[in-house]
């Protein structure tokens, strides 16, 4: 509660009071209090919950002094409403100059009394104010004594967490350095997502983002505060010091020490672990995590020993996986990480699907696919009790320079804060049926592989096939074509083809030279983990290949 006495210097900036010239609060100053459902806030309420606003006043030495009494509410759209005794709410729009005071008269002892009840509030953040000022002229002036309470009217289903990149305007780019957004812009953007999530996660602790934890807490959210580690040691020090300062203020619920540092090669494992251990010494009592792609954790067991929580990035899109197979692939990867996690908590720190941009393999960016993936992923996470941070809150235009056009289109909301079509299904609480669990195509039996479509000689179409009686997650297909010798397909650095949950698979066999003139095609069903021989025109296929295959098929055309 804010029991502050102020010489008024009040102006409005995007719907917020900005209060300056604060002087000391004395024991004989009035006690002004406002509560929401009996709470000092922040209060989170659902769609069917009623909201009761109550106020209390103890005027102390100002008992009997004539004053203006004010009851105001700022809405999610930065509009103002005002209360006029006994039962009228007026609309003032965005300008406080148009508000009216609730009552003009002497200050007196007012025990807790409910002055407003609401039901069915639209989704968003509301701030209620109770104020008195000792200049009874119907204008917000004089010495003001005030209190406020924040109410977060949430959606039926709130995400566990959201990755919060707030750089939504064309000129905002965190890689340029300096201040890119103001604290007020950051607060507004967090307030937009606050009804839709329980946590936010940030990627750095700098002038732009340092107040994110404070704003999150003020709206009833938790904050996973990240520090951006790189090869710049001086900047790393500034990031760590910022994190520690925010921790001491009580605004850090989890510390994320670096994001994809090992993937980028900015630090080696021992350097990263040194930073992690240092942060752990300085922020005791909260979990310390590191975030990176799943393969990094599988290959760095010492890193797992150093952290409290594994923050794991899964991107079936970047792996070029078809939208229908994406969550099945993520499910498989997640099980691998769980097996390697040594019993420590595993949180999905990033996953998502772009709504526009360039296709990657079989992964097609589109609004329909982005909405499907969002619903599919959250359904999987809810069914498997997996905590997660979805990537990401808003479209961020600056990323197009580094990732191509698709980099600017990962948001649930577009850059203007508009929810993209189809995303609302998740927030309404809808889920979809299990399409990620392992199944054995064709039922029990001896493993087999067959071609379902062999392109004619001279064609550039893809080879298609099907496997039966094996778990597709545990096997891969190696394909070879014969053009004056045997050649690995599709590529040397991509010698294996994944199998869909239905057992179907597809391989591009015309990726170079005169591949379309191949006279023979062979495919081998191999256990995952076996590295097939790479062929570049040899006359015969190695016996070791057939020895490791559980089934194979060959055709001449």
Automatic annotation (TrEMBL):
Q: Which UniProt keywords apply?
A: Carbohydrate metabolism, Cell membrane, Cell wall, Cell wall biogenesis/degradation, Glycoprotein, Hydrolase, Membrane, Polysaccharide degradation, Secreted, Signal
Extract one GO BP annotation from the record. polysaccharide catabolic process
Q: Please give the GO cellular component terms listed in this UniProt entry.
A: plasma membrane
Q: Where in the cell is it found?
A: Cell membrane; Secreted, Cell wall
Indicate where this protein is primarily found.
Answer: membrane
The family database entries (SUPFAM superfamilies) matched by this protein are listed as: (Trans)glycosidases
Select a single GO molecular function from the record's annotations and give it: hydrolase activity, hydrolyzing O-glycosyl compounds
Against PANTHER family, the record matches this protein to:
GLUCAN 1,3-BETA-GLUCOSIDASE, GLUCAN ENDO-1,3-BETA-GLUCOSIDASE BTGC
**Role according to the record:** Glucanases play a role in cell expansion during growth, in cell-cell fusion during mating, and in spore release during sporulation. This enzyme may be involved in beta-glucan degradation. Active on laminarin and lichenan.
Q: What is this protein called?
A: Endo-1,3-beta-glucanase btgC
